[in-house]
Amino acid sequence: MSDNSLQSHASEEKLENLAKKIKGWGESLGFQQVAIVEPDLSQASERLSKWLADGFQGSMGWMAEHGDKRYKVDKLVDHTLRVISVRMDYLADDKMIAVLKNDNKAYISRYALGRDYHKLIRKRLAKLVAKIQAELPQLELSQRPFVDSAPVMEKPLAEQAGLGWIGKNTLLLNNEAGSWFFLGEIYTSVPLPTDNNEQTNRCGNCRACLKVCPTDAFPEPYVLDARKCISYLTIESKDAIPEALRPMLGNRVFGCDDCQIICPWNRFASQTKEHDFSPRHNLDDPDLVTLFNWNQEEFLANTEGSPIRRIGHERWLRNLAVGLGNASASREILSCLENRADDPSPLVREHVQWAIARQQEKIALLTGE
Predict the structure, then answer these.
(1) What are the b/e assignments for 218-242, b being 16+ CB within 10 Å?
(2) Can you tell me the distance from the alpha carbon of 171 to that of 180, in angstroms, rounded to the nearest whole number?
(3) Is the Cβ–Cβ distance between 364 and 329 less than 8 Å?
(4) Number of domains within the chain
């Protein structure tokens, strides 16, 4: 249905009131911010094209798929006129630095400590979609919710909607909430009034995130080379972790938050009110050895409903082997690694052998043997 056709059925005043209701409903559904934008992704698509041409996507071939559906929103969802962009805080603990400093602990990105956000947020957005449709029962609307899914350029959309600005670490930053939040979107054919509160980029001369990155994954500000990013290496990549980068991973076994932890704007971040994002199974402060000793069944049981499960037990062991190789010299750790030296997976075996050699070298230096 066209913009004019919808306007004829829904007065400007009614659309204004609906936009206010949407924000109120969003708040009641647990979103910290809701904003409406008429999207223009032309510049974002140019930046994406250059990023892909530089090969920074690594093995994420899907980033180059779907043609112009990424930036022409009505190609993805017919008749889309507006995007409703939302954010939800997820930070549930303050142990990050303590865990990172203890090389016998396993650091897991804070977004993955609790329940998988995809399902939680998608259900909330589906409720919001239903409420919008109920307000305009005489119209057949075209609407669809997204949560980090499909070819949606969520950060540029959120930036245009006024939820923050894309910082030098390529994450969305908010001057009142930092960056510890999830994003979600609703594509809709309703010609809602838009918000004109786009935030000014406030990174200034700060380069803290660029300097702190363990693997130097930012070739320049606002550009991430995923091939060197620890989140990519431990989550997205299905291959062996490049040997030269393994020592730099430290104890980060699932994702990395260093560029968020160091960001000055995260001084303003709030703890989440969502119980489902609270840490499960002590994953905010776990021992490397404990996690490495999980068998397949324990891994599946302890990651049920968690975003961690998507990497599977094999890559979980791959990552933990690197963490154990980077840990302090320990005969317990060496013994733990040797118990998996004959693992059925060639990927796991190769990383375990690397870790064994690292531990043997450290123990020799410590004991003089």
Answers:
(1) beeeeebbbbbbbbbbbbbbeeebe
(2) 10
(3) no
(4) 2
Are 162 and 279 part of one and the same domain?
A: no
Q: Are residues 214 and 179 in the same domain?
A: no
In the annotation, is 195 catalytic? no
- pTM summary value: 0.94
Contact 346, 239 (CB under 8 A): no
pLDDT at 161 over 50: yes
Give me the DSSP letters along 180-196.
-EEEEEEEE-S-PPPP-
Q: Is pLDDT at 250 greater than 90 in this prediction? A: yes
Are the C-beta atoms of residues 68 and 15 closer than 8 Å to each other? no
DSSP string, 162-175: TS-EE-TTSSEEBT
Kindly report the backbone phi and psi dihedral angles of residue 129, in degrees, each rounded to the nearest multiple of 5, phi listed first. -60, -45
% of the chain residues with pLDDT over 90:
93
Which residue range is the domain that position 352 belongs to? 208-367
Question: Which of the residues 148, 285, 287, 343 is marked catalytic?
Answer: 148
- Return the H-helix or E-strand segment holding 117: helix 117-135
Whether 171 and 250 map to the same domain: the answer is no
